[in-house]
Each structure stands twice: as structure tokens, then as C-alpha cells.
Amino acid sequence: MALLSLSALSLQAQSKTTGSVSLMTGLTAKLDLNNTTTTATLTLTGPSDRWFALQFGSFTNSGGMQSGTDLVYYNGTTLVDASQNGVGAFPSIDASNDWTVSSNTVTGTTRTIVATRSFTGGTGDYTFVYNDANIDFVYARGASASFAIANHGANRGYALNKTFTCIPPAAPTASAQAFCAGATVANLTATGLAGATFNWYTTATGGTALAGTTALNTATYYVAQTLSACESDRTPVTVNITTLGLPTATATQNICTAGTVANLTATGQTGATINWYTAATGGSPLASTTALTNGTYFVGQTLGDCSSTRASVTVTITTVNAPTVTAAQTYCSGTTVANLSATGTGIQWYSTVGGTPLATTAPLTAGNYFATQTVTGCESATAQVTVTLNAASVIPTGDATQEFLAGETIATLDVTTATGATVTWYTLNGTTYTEVPVTTVLTDDTTYFVAQDTNGCESPKFGITANLVLSANSFNLKDVVVYPNPTSGVVTVSGSTQLTGISVINMLGQEVLTQKANDTSVQVNVSQLASGTYILKVTAANGATGSVRVVKQ
């Protein structure tokens, strides 16, 4: 018959096994102990045509046949729970069979029986102690094909000190996990057996368990659970690390007058929330309505549960006063916004408080206007101006065509103006009016313009065309030919009378060129003169004079 013994084991595990122990040809035994359920499971194989037995007990002298020691045997039908009665005696069947057979199968000539009982069993049963480190087996089988208990002959033996090894627990369960930058292996979580410890790895097999202080990266990690020295298979766990850098913000920000946190600007990652603080670390985010003051603020970004470090921003509050204005301003009809007066920087005008700035070309109307000034991007409050518009003075009157004698000035032109009015004369060159004094010498076929001012608003301009009247000693200009006209260089003056001099006079009455002559034909070089209209004054030998208009290109 056979004997089984257990010896002390200091380490604990969830379950352990002897593994399959080969007792003799065609006879094996495997004992599994489950400390959670306190059950022992025996897997016993032997020949399918005869009895075989396995003894449990504790012995040191190979004395496995002592009376009262525990054993089991197969009797052709089931596994029998029995006790030894000494050498040569038939075993006694226990009062209760405490082994529950869960499987009894035959493959070829080999029978395999699987049976389970509690650690303590019943009366006469050996008590399995989970902490024992090993066990001794004693075994026997019939010498011939028979299920009657008979002499086993040499078909018996001992298998001593068969060590238990733990049965690895199932792999733990763990789901994908997300962390903020700075998380370590200690932050990872998994679920396993009570009392188990968890080891984390970067590979599915092999390698060394990671220290709890190891920084995590976005990667796949693997977790195993260990009960005593038994480590499970590893479960893969996807880990995602959210890394948030500093938000982008202008280091110095200028805020106008009564700015709030909502006026501060910073840019973060897509989906991130920008938060502002008064400290580099800690504290609560500021509400967007919080009034700003001069000083340093700190901006960070948050995505999910992750927050970045904070960037510092220097905030300057700029308060801009309203521009300086004369509250009442008077202008003439036809004046534009460009004529309004205010002292400041970046002046803008409005027809109402707020709204859209007026174009400088917008015509003025009587009423209120509002001015602001802008300094370093900050617009001030408004200053009000009340505008009064005066109508233009009445236009002067007179003959539109008037004659004059050579050498006479604008003062000789006849024009009617209001008593006390300021009178101003102009010449026109293209679209440009040029003010000229009344002492300006008149030139033939030239239009002069006059305006008067009786209330600070000049009237429209009245034009008078001046025609030269020949004096008694004048010669007939019909006898004089001037060509080419217009000219860009040399002009020829030719007539039937001997000429003694040529003068060129601009439209302001200024003599710009003189040339002596002693012939009936004279060439005058005007190439150095500016482009425009000139009066060519011709003097004859008898002292007579005449004038003609010449255009210099």
C-alpha cells in the first residue's frame, strides 16, 4: 500500500500542486491543494484491469503499513476511502467515503480518476496542511488482472518528499488607463485575488518588474498578479499620457482702462481650456469677469483632468483720457469732419457715443459730435463738441468781362462787395486757385476770381475775364504772328513793324523773361520756364505795345 505525508511550508499561495508524480510504470499521482476552498484534488492513474492504491500518512522509516494510516484504492467501480490494518491485513473501509469522484475515464489500458475532498476529510482520514512544503507517496497495485484485494508482489513502492509548487493564479483584470504627464507605475490599477501583489512590465513575457517610481509613457504595459512566489500570466493594458505644454501668450499685454480677465489672450492645444491665476502654482482659476490690475498673471491650460504648468504674463492697464476740445465750434457750410478740432493722439469722430467712426470726408451738419483719442491701442472716453454752421457769404457781383489798359492791375477791375467784407482775388491754374494781390498786373484774356467774407465764411468765387484795350500809341496785334503756340521751346514773334523788345509775364503778373530786339521777327526761348500760361508783351520801335497769350508745354 502507499503512504502520503506533508511537511511545513512557510509561504502561502492560493493553490499548489505536486504535479504529476510517476510512481511506477502505468501508475501516477497528482495532488492539488486549494487554500481558498480548503479542498484537495487527487488525480490518480493506474491500469484499467486491476486494483491500485495510494496511501496518505506521515512516516520516516518506510513504514507505510501501520494500522490506522489513510489510503484510497480503486475497486473496479469507484475510489474507496479506507484505512490500513497493518502488514498482510485487509484494509478497513471508512465509515464515510469523503472523496467525491468527478471523473473516471479509461484511455487505452489506463484509467484516470479525479476526486476531491476537504483538507480534514472524515474519521480516519489524513488532514492536509496547506503550509506543508512537500508530501510522501506510498503506492501499490495488483500483481494480476483482478479487482479483488490480493498480493501486490513487487508492485509497490515509495515516492518521498514530493515538493508542492504553487499553481499560478489567473491573470488580473485591468482596463485601458489615462493619466497626466508625471504619472508613475504606482498610479496604475488592476484587479486580482485578495492578498495578491501586482507587478508591471513593458513586455508580455520576461524582463524585470518596473519600480513604482518609473515614469509612464503612452504605451502598452503588462500586469501580472503574484500570490507568494507564483506569478500569473500578464494582462496587456493600454496607457495614454496627456502632456500639456505651456499655453502661448504674449509676455506683456496692455489692457485698456477697466479690463477684465476676459480681455487677456492666450492660445492652447485643441480642446484645452485656458485658465488664468494670480499665482504660479495652486489657487483657483479667475472668473472671466474679474477686474484686472497692473501686475503679473499666470496662464495655464487644462485638458480633461490634466493641467499644464503656467506661463507668466505682465499686465499693464492703460487709462486714456478724453481728448481736449473746444466745446463749441463754428464752421462754414460745406466743411467736412476733417475740419473739426481736438487735441490728442489718434483722434476719431463719431456722430453718437459709440458706433462707427466718421470718415474725414463726411460733410458737417449742425449738432453734436464726439471725439476720442487712442493711445497704445486703447480708445478713450468721448469729448462732446457742439457744431454751429454758418452760411457762405454772398457772392460778389460785377461784369463778367472787363477791359483794361496795359499796365493796370487787379485793383482797376470793377466788382461790388459788401461794406466791410474781406475781399480776396485768385487766379486759376487747372483746378488750383492761387491767391494774388490786388497789385497784380492784368494780362489780356485772363480770368480773375474774387470772393468776399462777411461772417468768417468766404463766398463762392466770381470770375472776371480781363481784355486788354490798346492805347493810342498801341500797334495792331493783327500784324503780329506768334508761333508755335503752344510751344515747348522757342516761340517766334513776327510782324510788319520793327520790334524792339519782348517781355514774358506769368499769371501772377511777374516778369519772368525779357529780351531786346531790332527786327520785324524775333525768336524767344521759353524752354526754361515751367509749364503754364504766360503773357507775351511786345514793344514796337515807335513805342507802341501789345500782348498775346502763350502756352508753355
From TrEMBL:
<feature type="domain" description="Ig-like">
    <location>
        <begin position="169"/>
        <end position="242"/>
    </location>
</feature>
<dbReference type="InterPro" id="IPR044023">
    <property type="entry name" value="Ig_7"/>
</dbReference>
<dbReference type="InterPro" id="IPR026444">
    <property type="entry name" value="Secre_tail"/>
</dbReference>
<keyword id="KW-0732">Signal</keyword>
<dbReference type="Pfam" id="PF19081">
    <property type="entry name" value="Ig_7"/>
</dbReference>
<protein>
    <recommendedName>
        <fullName>Secretion system C-terminal sorting domain-containing protein</fullName>
    </recommendedName>
</protein>
<feature type="domain" description="Secretion system C-terminal sorting">
    <location>
        <begin position="482"/>
        <end position="545"/>
    </location>
</feature>
<feature type="domain" description="Ig-like">
    <location>
        <begin position="247"/>
        <end position="318"/>
    </location>
</feature>
<dbReference type="Pfam" id="PF18962">
    <property type="entry name" value="Por_Secre_tail"/>
</dbReference>
